[in-house]
Amino acid sequence: MQVIVNGQPRELPEGTTVADAVATVTAAGSGVAAAVNDEVVRRADWAATTLRDADRLEVLTAVQGG
Known about the structure:
The chain is mainly β. It has one helix and five strands, in the order ββαβββ. It starts with a strand and ends in a 5-residue tail after the last strand. Pfam families: ThiS.
């Protein structure tokens, strides 16, 4: 299936969860947020939230700086 991840098309296997997809984008263990089709997904729900063909996933990582 094809999912848009951070604005880029990406082929992912059927059954891919938000947790799986986030792991392909970043190795950060904390400071990460995810939204599917403009709806924030709670981190506790990542493993239970399955992506579908044509979904849009945004993965945001907090960056320290000033």
